[in-house]
């Protein structure tokens, strides 16, 4: 549960009823750190 501070690129944590009741784990949303390449680049 306390591993979040050591994880990189986590931008959002979704907590639903299942997490509160102990039936599931929180869903972590990671930010995309890769820059998209332009279509014209080769």
Radius of gyration: 16 Å
> Number of DSSP strands?
2
- Which residues form runs of ≥5 with pLDDT under 50? none
Strand content: 15-25%
Please summarize the sheet with the most strands. Answer: 2 strands, antiparallel
Give a topology summary.
Blueprint lengths: L9 E5 L2 H5 L5 E4 L12
Antiparallel strand pairs: 1-2
Task: Describe what this molecule looks like in 3D.
This protein has 42 residues and is α+β, with helices and mostly antiparallel strands. The protein has one helix and two strands, in the order βαβ.
Task: Give the structure's gist in a few sentences.
This protein is α+β, with helices and mostly antiparallel strands. It has one helix spanning 17-21, and strands at residues 10-14, 27-30.
Descriptors:
single chain, 42 residues, alpha+beta, 1 helix, 2 strands, elongated
């Amino acid at each position: 549960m306390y591993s979040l501070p050591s994880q990189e690129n986590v931008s959002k944590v979704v907590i639903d009823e299942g997490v509160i009741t102990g039936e599931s784990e929180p869903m972590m949303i990671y930010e995309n750190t890769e820059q998209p390449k332009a279509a014209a680049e080769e």
